[in-house]
Amino acid sequence: MQEHRISRWYFGGIASCGAACCTHPLDLIKVLLQTQQEVKTRMVGMAVHVVRSDGVLALYSGLSASVCRQLTYSLMRFAIYETVRDMMGSETGRPMPFYQKVLLAAVGGLTGGFVGTPADMVNVRMQNDVKLPPELRRNYAHALDGLFRVWREEGMRKLFSGATMASSRGALVTVGQLSCYDQAKQLVLGSGMMSDNILTHFLASLIAGGCATILCQPLDVMKTRLMNSKGEYGGVVHCLLDTAKLGPRAFYKGLVPAAIRLIPQTVLTFIFLEQLRARFGIRVITST
């Protein structure tokens, strides 16, 4: 008999929250770069500007919304992906084929992206506040205050502004992260060169983070613009055409900070997740 552990449905949300707390300043800088109409400031310059203008703590503007987003978006996508994957794996006794992992990750990402759209929008707005003049800032006290004020001042539909982009991005990120992580880990362990330890988790999550960054960056730029808009875009197509006027590179604006933010976040998320699974996961006994 052999014992192994599987994740509880909420582990992905907890792991993502821990990772988000570590990488939030990089996420904030990424949003500020993406919402520039013209490239005026680079990553380091933007960070220096924020610190000089509002202090070091300004790098954590919108942290409550970021945590709220992970507790909706990431919790949902991980719960769907890992629950179905483990269930199918227990029935067949072997890992899912890669194409099934991709399809499952896309479904989980679409669902999580839609559910997490309100918190994601408030997160973008709170982060973007630090670069606006004081009289133009929205000044949400925290994530729940932001959600309530958007609902009260702009209506329920505004809470789901950019939902199409958020869901599409969620699908691509989840494919890049979850399915690629599983496949990379499976291949590394299958080679026999490494065991199931933190080094393997680091290598597999590094690969997954790179895949996710490249896949989702164009949609991430459009999602950020839609969520931060004040009515200047008539829809997704209008935003796409307006962004395209700035040239192809506009769709990869903020790619470096996005990679610097998403790759460490992916690595930390899966390392935290693997530790949660190893210590608090559900024990499963299988016959060898």
Low-pLDDT stretches: none
The major pleated sheet works out as: 2 strands, antiparallel
Average the pLDDT over all residues and give the rounded result.
87
Counted beta strands: 2
Can you write the helix and strand succession as a string?
A: EHHHHHHHHHHHE
Strand content: under 5%
Rg of Cα set = 19 Å
Q: Helix segment count? A: 11
Helix content: over 70%
The shape is elongated
Structural class: mainly alpha
Q: Terminal Cα separation, in Å? A: 6 Å
Strand order of the largest sheet: 1-2
Please, could you describe this protein's structure?
The chain is built from eleven helices and two strands, in the order βαααααααααααβ. It is mostly helical and 288 residues long. It has a two-stranded antiparallel ribbon with strand order 1-2. It is elongated and about 65 Å long. The mean pLDDT is 87.
Descriptors for this entry?
288 residues, two-stranded antiparallel sheet, elongated
What's the gist of this structure?
α1 (11-34) runs antiparallel to α11, α3 (63-92) packs antiparallel against α4 and α8 (163-190) runs antiparallel to α9 (198-228). 48% of the residues are buried. It is built from 11 helices and 2 strands, in the order βαααααααααααβ.
Topology, element by element:
Blueprint: E1 2-6, H1 11-34, H2 43-54, H3 63-92, H4 98-115, H5 117-128, H6 143-154, H7 156-159, H8 163-190, H9 198-228, H10 236-244, H11 255-280, E2 282-286
Antiparallel strand pairs: 1-2
